[in-house]
Design brief:
By secondary structure, the protein is mainly beta. The chain contains 3 helices and 42 strands.
Length: 446
């Protein structure tokens, strides 16, 4: 049985989806609102709708504005492929490539340039509704949002490598409940997902990469989750960022290098960062800032090494090796059972001659750091013109010139009454023993 609440953008009579799918989707949403006017009809009234985007390319020249609940926009393929690799292949090789652009059900964000526009005005999908109840159950599933190109940023870097274009994939401005973003592809957007004031948000099983920032949860929020995603931001942005959230679950994500941070939490409490694979080319991989407290950081794999791909060789996030791979400002956090691999070239340590720091407690009290394993090796770093082979070679190489001296845990004077157990030898932990409890990891021959 067909349903009047199921729409296909290619059969809707208003607009041309190939030329401006934004106009088409806005027209469909207007139709849903015109037909679903009763707030309570036979114990129902406003079931919402599904908008289907078949496989194909659809330019978006008009921002989609969503102000109805229970709306699902879905496609038939996330369509991600690396635009960065293609743009860094010499143009005379492009004719031999199997494909040049992302595919699947693909939205091409082609909003007119406007240097004075607000961030929200440059988003492909803008969600906002005031009043009560909060807008609920808006879902995005299984299609690609492609920002197409990056712009020059004045640094002299190749324009397609700047991660700057002012475009956002999905921007949620108002308080919301039970939103879902699943199976999506995001590429070449300055901001992939920007969401304010989320409650019970699920960001699951997406491919969000080659974006300036990937996931930003702003304002405040509770009981949300970021799980099973493949994520990779640029050096000016964050792969996963959240502020003032409680009960946030960040689990089983594979976070690629090059983002300024893998996970950054500000004012986040009673949340979990667990079972993630985190890879970065710089310090400051995971940051708990602004009194982030009572959080669990457990059983994650941290890998910090050097950028092997020639176009980005020498690019970093501005932090030195005393910053720490995991940096905490907060109280009563637990850091348990993590594996840290610090595989770097001692000749490139900053400041020169410094001993790199793995875990750094900057402020707060009562933190518990236990049973973390640190592998630190000194390697001679090289660059490679091939992104894929260069990265794979770097990941699979375990031979090193020598072991690298590191400080596994550093506790600043502003942090006290912490407990550090089996997370570094006596010489590897820098802490005031009168203000903190320490049980060092035994060494061979101890």
């Amino acid at each position: 049985m067909s349903s009047s609440n199921y729409y296909d953008v290619t059969t809707w009579p208003v607009g041309n989806p190939a030329k401006d799918v934004g106009e088409v989707i806005n027209s469909i949403i207007a139709d849903v609102k015109d037909r679903q006017t009763a707030a309570d009809a036979d114990d129902g009234g406003k079931p919402g709708a599904v908008i289907y985007i078949p496989p194909g390319d659809y330019r978006l020249r008009t921002q989609v504005v969503i102000d109805v609940s229970f709306l699902r926009i879905e496609g038939s393929g996330h369509g991600f492929t690396s635009s960065s690799i293609r743009f860094n292949v010499p143009e005379d090789e492009w004719p031999d490539l199997h494909e040049l652009w992302p595919g699947g059900s693909r939205i091409l964000v082609d909003l007119p340039p406007d240097g004075d526009a607000e961030e929200s005005e440059r988003a492909a999908f803008y969600i906002n509704r005031s009043g009560s109840p909060r807008i609920s159950s808006v879902e995005f599933s299984n299609f690609c949002i492609d920002g197409l190109h990056f712009d020059p940023d004045g640094t002299g870097m190749h324009p397609e490598n700047t991660y700057v274009n002012g475009r956002t994939g999905i921007y949620v401005a108002s308080a919301n409940d039970s939103f879902r973003v699943t199976g999506m592809g995001f590429v070449y957007l300055e901001n992939a997902l920007t969401i304010y004031n989320a409650d019970a948000l699920s960001i699951h099983d997406n491919f969000i990469a080659e974006c300036g920032s990937c996931i930003e949860l702003r304002g405040w929020g509770q009981a949300s989750k970021i799980t099973d995603n493949l994520i990779g931001a640029g050096p000016k942005g964050h792969s996963i960022y959240a502020q003032n959230h409680g009960g946030l679950l960040i689990t089983a994500n594979n976070v690629f290098p090059r983002g300024a941070s893998s996970v950054r939490l500000e004012g986040v409490t009673r949340s979990s960062v667990t079972n993630n694979r985190l890879h970065s080319f710089y310090p400051g991989m995971v940051v708990l800032a602004a009194n982030s407290s009572e959080n669990l950081v457990a059983t994650n794999h941290f890998l910090r090494d050097h950028e092997p791909w020639t176009p980005f060789f020498g690019v970093d996030n501005g932090l030195d090796d005393l910053n720490g791979l995991l940096r905490m400002s907060g109280s009563n956090n637990s850091v348990v059972g993590n594996h840290f691999s610090q595989i770097i070239d001692s000749q490139r340590i900053r400041p020169q001659g410094a001993t790199p720091v793995i875990i750094r407690l900057v402020e707060g009290t009562g933190n518990f750091v236990s049973n973390n394993h640190v592998v630190a090796m000194d390697v001679r770093s090289t660059s490679n013109d091939s992104c894929y082979s260069g990265q794979v070679d770097a990941l699979l190489t375990t031979e090193a010139a020598d072991r690298l001296a590191v400080t596994t845990v550093m506790i600043d004077s502003e942090s006290a009454r912490n407990t550090i157990l089996d997370s570094g030898s006596e010489a590897q932990v820098i802490a005031d023993r009168t203000a903190n409890a320490l049980r060092a990891t035994p060494t061979i021959g101890f």
